[in-house]
């Protein structure tokens, strides 16, 4: 190899033809070469000489750069902050670099993004890479709490060009897992002057500190029209028949070697040359008939990489196992092998790198390392071009984006005596061994091909939760109207007489959610009241539905996932879904979940939602607020769920039809008026009971339960209620949109007026338990239908909104007291010292 060739920069070919320049640190041309690719956003490609992706390199150089960057991050953070840090690498090019940075940092756990979805593993985040040919990145930690701490997050990529990818990542993660500090790590910082200030501006915007650590910095100067010229150049070279032989790995001249600047100095002070081969030899003309398989004895339980997280304990396990695995690898090599290449597999970069590094340290062979890639790059056999040869082969890991070509660069023609291919078991498929597969392609260019397969790490998956229940099998609603994240307990006897339930609940012997009240069967007179109330209030309800839906679409999400709190929230959620369809043509997903006072929301339902939807799009829906107990219950439950499962993003703000208690910001009205769906139980709620949570029926991996009262179909008015309200949408649409616009501009901060009133009433009537005070028309109706009522407080002058309450009170012998200055239309009081058979103010039993 001549001194002249030794001095050729591997970016000169592109620079001369397109006028592209690297400007900055002197070490840039040693770290980077240039190539061209077919890409509509950016034709040129910065090719790292020390990353171990496109350019075979000494593993000690590749690993050394990552470890040194990690040590610099540790110095920047200090020992205490470094001990709380988490490292996140980018797929596919920086997965190994990120691992190495984590090693240099010390005890930091590591995770890398992935483009390989894994069934049963919930995504803890995701982001887009603006300039890439494949953009969707997923974060799939086995333990979602990995990202939930407040220590520094260290983001590692091979190059920092525009900063868009990092900003997209931080924006997504900060919304879910806010923290005070981020550190961006890259081999090269190549931002333009226009992009330099964006990171600082973004840091101020989110209120966090963002530091940057890079091995070298500079920028790429691109002349006008470079994209079009680059695309034309790629098309011209790809059309030449000669390029086909290059793509298949025609022999190339000796590659250049580049001096390494002071950061960090590899053992010999130089980046190892690409070619550096001795005498020429003739490559075999066909696949080697006997590619050998190496059993590494990979340790059980050791992940193959950071796709699902890699902890310090994993790192220690790997370190202890590496010497023995490297010996097995060395023993499998041909006895006369002097130049050996370890070829990793797309995102699987770290394990092959560490094997190559250990082999380089312990065996008397020259070792080079690189990996296959999804990125299509033009190959040009010229010392001034970074990609000298290209092997193309079919994907062999059943990728989520379908079949396609994959590539190995600068391996063919490099004079390797053996190539060891390292894949995970997901990539050990027939396509790998096919006549046109990777192993056969390599066998045409090296005397010996060996294969080492690392077990693909499969996280311990949570139990597979069932799909939502839907009508008509469960509920009288149409299947598209709502999916119930519940289990069907219809065959279990759960009902108990009201008096028995009340005594058990108040004595502490049972929780209200462990049994069901006997379903109240309305008299003919009561049913007539329901239909009259529906006729009078349908337009009013329709307008409130429109208002709250418009507010959700404007403030919460343009395509929300409606999640009703079963069961009172379910009719409201269906009406909101119908409004979005009527007014905006949206087909919104809608589910119903269980929330139980004192027990929280169904965590398994949350897990199902997080697995199928972005938690940030979920909007919890309820019918109305009373004193705000469920509002507080939901907020506390979601906070605890975030800590236990590491899944965040669920917004505890409930959207309600009516908010008389002033407990929420998203509502259709704050007036306390009769919502006819509160007048009945299951017969206006799809024939579904209230939810049940009892240990002998609901296991740790089950949804909460409920019953479907099919036998009550003759008196079911669930769909009739929905149809009566949604029929009024056209006439109230303009008014609802105008009212929503006014409310969006107004101060809607909760005053918790209702809670204060309940505490006042509790003291005044010597109840001393706010849970026995049920404010509002809806809650008072529930008291009359399900509990043992003591008395009803009615606002003086309340009109027809209370006709059904007065009728129920008369049937149950419950006094109704008119009270001045009541903030609600009415308040229902549950008997505060109940014993079996007692009801009403006098404690005597009354048959219903």
TrEMBL record:
CDD domains documented for this protein: PRTases_typeI
SUPFAM superfamilies on file: PRTase-like
Domain of life according to the entry: Bacteria
Domain TRSP: start-end pairs: 304-440
PELOTA RNA-binding domain residues: 752-831
Domain Cysteine protease StiP N-terminal: start-end pairs: 475-725
A Pfam family per the record: PELOTA_1
Protein name per UniProt: Phosphoribosyltransferase
Organism encoding this protein: Streptomyces luteogriseus
């Amino acid at each position: 190899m001549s001194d002249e060739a030794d001095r050729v920069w591997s970016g000169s070919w592109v620079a001369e033809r397109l006028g592209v320049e690297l400007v900055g640190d002197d070490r840039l041309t040693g770290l980077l070469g240039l190539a061209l690719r077919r890409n509509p956003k950016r034709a040129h490609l910065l090719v790292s000489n020390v990353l171990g992706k496109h350019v075979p390199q000494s593993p000690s150089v590749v690993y050394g750069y990552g470890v040194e960057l990690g040590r610099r991050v540790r110095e920047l953070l200090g020992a205490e902050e470094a001990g709380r840090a988490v490292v996140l690498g980018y797929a596919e090019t920086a997965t190994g670099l990120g691992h190495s940075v984590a090693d240099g940092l010390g005890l930091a756990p590591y995770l890398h993004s992935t483009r390989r979805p894994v069934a049963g593993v919930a995504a803890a985040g995701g982001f887009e890479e603006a300039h890439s040919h494949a953009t969707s990145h997923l974060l799939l930690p086995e333990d979602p709490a990995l990202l939930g701490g407040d220590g520094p997050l260290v983001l590692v990529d091979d190059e920092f060009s525009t900063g868009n990818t990092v900003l997209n990542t931080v924006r997504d993660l900060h919304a879910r897992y806010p923290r005070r500090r981020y550190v961006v790590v890259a081999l090269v910082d190549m931002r333009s002057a226009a992009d330099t200030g964006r990171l600082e501006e973004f840091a101020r915007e989110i209120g966090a500190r963002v530091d940057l650590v890079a091995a070298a910095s500079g920028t790429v100067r691109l002349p006008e029209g470079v994209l079009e010229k680059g695309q034309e150049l790629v098309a011209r070279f790809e059309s030449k028949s000669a390029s086909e032989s290059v793509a298949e790995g025609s022999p190339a001249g000796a590659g250049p070697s580049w001096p390494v600047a002071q950061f960090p100095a590899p053992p010999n002070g130089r980046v190892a040359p690409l070619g550096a081969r001795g005498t020429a030899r003739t490559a075999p003309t066909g696949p080697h008939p006997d590619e050998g398989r190496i059993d590494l004895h990979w340790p059980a339980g050791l992940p193959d990489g950071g796709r699902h997280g890699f902890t310090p304990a994993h790192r220690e396990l790997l370190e202890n196992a590496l010497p023995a695995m490297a010996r097995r690898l060395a023993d499998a090599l041909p006895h006369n092998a002097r130049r050996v290449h370890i070829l990793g597999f797309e995102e699987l970069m770290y394990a092959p790198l560490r094997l190559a590094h250990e082999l380089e340290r312990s065996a008397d062979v020259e070792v080079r390392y690189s990996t296959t890639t999804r990125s299509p790059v033009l190959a040009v056999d010229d010392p001034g071009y970074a990609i000298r040869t290209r092997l193309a082969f079919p994907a062999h890991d059943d990728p989520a984006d379908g079949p396609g070509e994959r590539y190995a660069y600068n391996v063919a023609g490099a004079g390797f005596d053996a190539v060891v291919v390292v894949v995970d078991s997901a990539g050990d498929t027939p396509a790998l061994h096919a006549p046109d597969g990777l192993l056969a392609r390599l066998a045409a260019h090296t005397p010996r091909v060996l294969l080492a397969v690392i077990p693909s790490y499969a996280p311990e998956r949570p139990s597979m939760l069932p799909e939502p229940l839907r009508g008509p099998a469960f509920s009288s609603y149409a299947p598209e109207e709502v999916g119930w994240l519940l289990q069907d307990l219809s065959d279990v006897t759960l009902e108990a007489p009201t008096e028995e339930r009340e005594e058990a609940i108040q004595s502490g012997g049972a929780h209200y959610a462990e049994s069901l009240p006997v379903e109240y069967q309305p008299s003919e007179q009561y049913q007539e009241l329901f239909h009259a109330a529906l006729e009078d209030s349908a337009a009013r309800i329709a307008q409130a539905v429109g208002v709250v839906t418009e507010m959700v679409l404007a403030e919460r999400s343009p395509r929300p996932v409606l999640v009703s709190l079963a069961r009172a929230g379910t009719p409201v959620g269906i009406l909101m879904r119908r409004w979005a369809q009527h007014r905006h043509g949206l087909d919104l997903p809608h589910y119903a979940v269980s929330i139980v006072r004192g027990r929280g929301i169904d965590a398994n339902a949350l897990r199902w939602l997080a697995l199928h939807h972005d938690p940030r799009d979920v909007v919890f829906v309820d019918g109305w607020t009373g004193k705000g107990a469920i509002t507080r219950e939901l907020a506390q439950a979601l906070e605890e769920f975030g800590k236990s499962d590491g899944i965040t993003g669920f917004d505890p703000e409930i959207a309600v039809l009516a908010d008389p208690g002033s407990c929420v910001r998203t509502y259709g009205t704050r007036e306390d008026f009769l919502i006819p769906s509160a007048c009945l139980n299951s017969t206006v709620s799809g024939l579904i009971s209230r939810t049940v949570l009892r240990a002998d029926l609901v296991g740790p991996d089950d949804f909460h339960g409920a019953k479907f009262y099919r036998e009550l179909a003759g008196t079911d008015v669930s769909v009739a209620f929905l149809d009566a309200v949604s029929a009024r949408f056209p006439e109230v649409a303009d008014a609802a949109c105008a009212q929503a616009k006014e409310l969006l501009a107004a101060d809607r901060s909760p005053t918790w007026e209702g809670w204060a009133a309940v505490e006042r009433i509790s003291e005044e009537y010597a109840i001393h338990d706010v849970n026995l005070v049920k404010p509002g028309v809806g809650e008072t109706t529930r008291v009359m239908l399900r509990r043992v009522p003591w008395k009803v407080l009615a606002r003086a002058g309340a009109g027809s909104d209370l006709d059904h309450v007065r009728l129920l009170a008369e049937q149950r012998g419950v006094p109704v007291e008119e009270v001045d200055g009541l903030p609600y239309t009415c308040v229902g009081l549950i008997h505060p010292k109940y014993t079996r058979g007692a009801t009403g103010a006098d404690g005597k039993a009354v048959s219903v």
